[in-house]
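Case study 2.
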Amino acid sequence: MRLAAFVCAVMLAGGIGCGPAAADPQSCKDFGGAVDADQICHSHTGTASYTISLNFPVDYPDSQALTAYLTQRRDQLVDYAEKFPLGDRPAPYQLAVSAKEYRSAGTQSVVLRVGEDVGVHPVSSMKAFNYDLGKQAPITYDTFFKPGAFDIIAPAVRRDLASNTQVLPPRGGLDPASYRNFAITDRDIIFFFDQGQLFGENEGPLHAAVPRAELAPFLN
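Prediction:
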């Protein structure tokens, strides 16, 4: 076990949350950006055909996974712009990524909101990353939740969405694959959904919080 993992495990055993990860400013330089005082990278690039704006934390422990995803999205937009010239389109293609961080005792999460405009109207999607600071390992839906958790998650998500006065179709949201993007806090597990993902309509993007206590029997 690496020293950092050992120290973090000892802190967690004593009921103390692990501190933030060391910043990785190189990940920002790779995108031609600059890091601010809050350890957020701001990168803005573009040509006559496209504009790309990336804002993300450089202190996320699994920076390789985060930057790999951002690189993929950036390259996809650049490739699209090269294959499909603007023509009569009045504005360049656009990709804008913003991030929000969440923490609990022993975990760190980053949720990206990805806005892309390459067609008739802009589309927003969500991408979440979670990390176990004690185990020094990524957290996924399958490693965090036990079998049977979805039977609690799905109705709890609908309940939270309804309480926020959002009109819901009579059916929908029953595909477990739609619940892969989530963030962890000490109080809640927050689920995030792409625009139109949850109910097959043009809603969203949406998010819903499920109390962690409600899911406790189904957490690993």
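Residues 143 and 220 are 7 Å apart (CA to CA).
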